[in-house]
Amino acid sequence: MPVELYTPVQAKFEASRCLMCSNAPCACDCPAGVDARAFIRKIRFDNLDGAARMLRSCNVLADSCSYICPTGALCGKECSAEGLGRPIDISALQRFVMEHERGSGMIEPLRSNGSGARVAVVGAGPAGLGCAAELAARNHSVTVFERDAYAGGMLKQCIPSFRLPDEVVDFEIEFIKKLGVEFSFNTAVDDPARLISEDFKAVFIATGLDKPRDVEFVGAAMPGVYQALDLLRAAKRGDAVDLGKRAVVIGGGDTALDAARIARHVGCEVLVLYRRTQSEMPAYPEEIDAAWDEGIEFYFRTIVHGVTGGDRVQGVRCVRVRWRDKVPGLPHGYDVDGQEFQIGCDSVIIATGQGPASSFGLRSTPSGMIAVDKSSFATSTPGIFAGGDIAFGGGTAARAVGHGRLAAIAIDEYVRKLG
Ligand SMILES: Cc1cc2nc3c(=O)[nH]c(=O)nc-3n(C[C@H](O)[C@H](O)[C@H](O)COP(=O)(O)OP(=O)(O)OC[C@H]3O[C@@H](n4cnc5c(N)ncnc54)[C@H](O)[C@@H]3O)c2cc1C
Q1: Spatial distance between the Cα atoms of 163 and 169, rounded to a whole number of angstroms
Q2: If pLDDT is split at 50, 70 and 90, which confidence band does 302 have?
Q3: 194-231 tens-digit pLDDT
Q4: Domain range enclosing 44
Q5: Is residue 58 included in any domain, yes or no?
Q6: What's the gap in Å between 154 CA and the centre of ligand 1?
Q7: Does some domain include residue 111?
Q8: Residues lining ligand 1, CB < 6 A?
Q9: Cβ proximity of 296 and 270 under 8 Å
Q10: In the chain, is it the N or the C terminus that has fewer CB atoms within a 10 Å radius of its CB?
């Protein structure tokens, strides 16, 4: 599905549909804190530079987010224009503004003079980048330590380029570098507390979630079984992966659907097996529609018992299930509906979720995330803050950037108090 890029005339028409609600419900639902009504007003008055500056100031990854934000579940859901036919296409307008910024030469960011404190950021994904940009804008001297050889986190490592072009993310990272943020690539941090003793006044941890959850069925280690994130990373690198003619994907989130679409794009017949119903899939409806449109098939209420084959995958054994009504306080149980059956396939892609690789010895939640104060993002250790997926579980890029920015404001306050 090609991404829609407005012409100036289309953008003006769409902006003119905005009702300019006094309570701006769209703004309340943006996890990055973007006031859509305010930047749309600037489009109406042809002030595209002003609109771009406004967007960048609260979301330094505004262009990337305009490609991948699930607006139907966020700002678009609350848009009052829905009552008059359809909501304003806020992401298309945001993309139009940021496209203007890229095309017209970069709006020069104000470079940090580094007069503030030295702060370390661990992880160069959306949360780390949002934090680094805001700290630099507040004149702190920021170093981002990134395990990988480049910045962008999941946006560059896994989200397919047909959904988010690499050059869009690269432009935004250049913008952040121009703010004066320093990057130390190929540097995995295993002890953030040590950075404090190395003369950093504070540390922000934003290492995301990339450790696949353990799967319980037999044959999960057989050749031809792939972890979805490994497959997505390989596709981003342009590496060839042999999926055969038929691929089965297990899971129902965005990662499952991105992996399914990658398999489809290399010519596979693809079947997605999800344990619950379509309406319970965690993937956003836009992604589910795109998968259907590309000819990907689904079996719902299907649980995999094992992978069959020997030297190579030959199929999966599964059962259909019927979920019982939810009882508060009890795990959601199911009954098996019929006999076990087999589905023949050449490869199996596991996308059943991921968790944190490490919580760095900090106090963590029962699900393994780093425990933080929800307003200051402070962890149990003074001077160490955390945000994005590693602290709040899997979410959106916009939420991660928003966390990073809010954490930077709290870190700014913290280091000022240190004097
Ligand atoms: C396949 C897929 C599709 C998605 N689709 C969407 C979508 O359509 N829309 C949307 O809004 N969101 C989507 N998301 C979710 C979104 O990408 C994440 O919510 C977001 O990237 C989280 O940002 P983060 O900064 O917390 O973590 P990440 O993006 O995971 O970044 C963490 C960074 O930390 C680095 N790192 C890890 N450990 C260390 C260490 N010890 N030392 C140094 N660096 C380290 C990693 O290399 C990485 O660069 C998707 C995610 C995936 C996996």
Answers
A1: 12
A2: very high
A3: 999 888 999 999 999 999 888 878 888 899 999 999 99
A4: 8-103
A5: yes
A6: 4
A7: no
A8: 68-70, 122-128, 145-148, 153-154, 158-159, 188-189, 206-208, 210, 232, 254-255, 258, 388-390, 394-398, 400
A9: yes
A10: C
